[in-house]
Backbone:
């Protein structure tokens, strides 16, 4: 039988003014996060990705099953394979699969089927969602709220990387099944997204887009 064990919470109490300052400072930091599509080949300092992944791994999740796996690729040959497979899917997407209105919606972002950043960027992180855990003896252990959990962990990873001074691109070639094969992950893990990580190319520009106002995204009752 399982039993519940509780330990004291480590919680930092802050003054009201400190709370306000931190909330404002964090907003100023995170609003600078922009998806970039042109990367420099500058390497990422050692240990940075590891700590960002540890931060992502603290995400709240269903019954603490931690139903995620992150595959970090820095090897140029593997990045090339990923680029080739992704571009094959994207070619289909842009030329056949995508409906007109979707392509129209993508115009402001200037995206197309060519994905050179998959080779230029120093790291690609494949994020996998585990629908269940397979024990050594082959028994299935249930996972809960998998998409929600992996989505939260991914958000925390993107935030941690931005905080560390790195740029990211959430890339979702669809379908992404080829990532299981290239990244050697079992079939009960579903590729959730591919995060491109590194430094922006020099003088990179980003789309001039606006975020919704507070009054549009929220209601205070
Ligand atoms: N996966 C394609 C298309 C694409 C779709 C959406 I929704 C975007 O916000 C951006 C791109 C691509 O990566 O080009």
Residues:
């Amino acid at each position: 039988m399982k039993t519940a064990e509780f330990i004291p919470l480590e919680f930092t109490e802050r003054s009201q003014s400190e709370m306000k300052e931190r909330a404002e400072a964090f907003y100023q930091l995170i609003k600078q996060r922009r998806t970039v599509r042109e990367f420099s080949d500058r390497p990422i300092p050692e240990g940075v990705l590891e700590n960002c992944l540890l931060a992502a791994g603290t995400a709240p999740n269903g019954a603490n099953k931690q139903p995620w796996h992150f595959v970090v690729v820095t090897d140029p040959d593997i990045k090339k394979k990923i680029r080739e497979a992704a571009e094959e899917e994207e070619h289909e997407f842009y030329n056949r699969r995508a409906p007109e209105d979707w392509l129209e919606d993508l115009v402001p972002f200037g995206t197309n089927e060519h994905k050179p950043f998959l080779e230029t960027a120093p790291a690609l992180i494949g994020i996998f969602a585990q629908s269940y855990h397979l024990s050594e003896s082959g028994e299935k252990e249930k996972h809960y709220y998998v998409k929600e959990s992996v989505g939260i962990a991914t958000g925390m990873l993107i935030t941690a990387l931005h905080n560390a001074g790195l740029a990211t691109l959430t890339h979702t070639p669809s379908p992404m099944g080829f990532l299981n094969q290239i990244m050697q992950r079992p079939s009960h893990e579903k590729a959730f997204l591919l995060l491109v990580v590194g430094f922006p190319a020099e003088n990179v520009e980003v789309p001039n887009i606006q975020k919704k106002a507070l009054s549009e995204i929220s209601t205070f009752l």
